[in-house]
Amino acid sequence: RGGHELAIRASSLIMEARETIADYFGISDPLRIAFGQNTTMALNIGISGLIKDGDHVVISSMEHNSVSRTVAAKDNVEYTVVMANEKGYLNPFDVERAIRPNTALIAINHASNVTGSSQDIATIGKIAAKHAVPLMVDAAQSAGCIPIDVERMNISLLAFAGHKCLI
After folding, report:
1. Distance CA 63, CA 86 (A)
2. Mind giving me the DSSP string for 24-81?
3. Count of alpha carbons within 13 Å of 114, Cβ hemisphere only?
4. Which of 74, 78, 97, 157 has its CA 20 to 30 A from that of 13?
5. For 166, phi and psi rounded to 5 degrees?
6. What 3-state class would DSSP assign to 127?
7. Cα-Cα-Cα-Cα dihedral of 128, 131, 134, 137, to 10°?
8. Tell me: the pLDDT tens digits for 67-93?
9. How confident is the model at residue 1 (pLDDT cuts 50, 70, 90)?
10. What is the spatial distance between Cα 26 and Cα 118, in angstroms, rounded to a whole number?
């Protein structure tokens, strides 16, 4: 954030990284990309920034603790856990049935590091858009392995780690 040569070079590299990520994940505005310490922190910032007292959140039974514990710890926030089947897959229409008038966020784990299952984010994204509810996707295990197009899939927030499949 300075005018000297190293600051300008650093800013240029950060912008280049934003543009590369935006291109890769189908994000039209690279300035909508924020960098964080890790996926857990990114998910926590998303949850804390979007929900307030009186809100409702939809999560799945496949969520990492960084989502489920953070949502459960919020005072005056209700949440619904949509159960996955015995193989770890969600029925997207169960997600839709869980939406309430005060639903402020749908948070879904794209791929499980426990079961290997991946969720139909494109359909869940259409459902989220239909109900005007932001969709936050935990792509810690899927980014770089499973194609993700943020805008086509109606993803409002995508959290992922750069050290896994994107190297």
Report:
1. 15
2. HHT-S-GGG----S-HHHHHHHHHHHH--TT-EEEEETT--HHHHHHHHT-TT-EEEE
3. 11
4. 157
5. -100, 0
6. helix
7. -10
8. 999 999 999 999 999 999 999 999 999
9. low
10. 19
Contacts of 163 (CB under 8 A, 6+ apart): none
Structure tokens that stand for 147 in this block? 């194609």
Return the amino acid letter for 38: N
* Rg (the chain; Cα; Å): 17
Q: 146: closest CA among 164, 130, 133, 125?
A: 164
Structure tokens that stand for 137 in this block = 């996707």
CB atoms within 10 A of CB 49: 11
Global pTM reads 0.92
Cross-sheet strand order for the sheet of 135-138: 78-82, 56-60, 103-109, 135-138, 157-159
CA-based torsion, 3, 23, 148, 56: positive or negative: positive
Burial 82-109 (b: 16+ CB within 10 A, else e): bebeeebbbebeebbebbeeebbbbbbb
Return the DSSP state at 12.
Answer: H
**CA 69 from chain center: how many Å?**
16
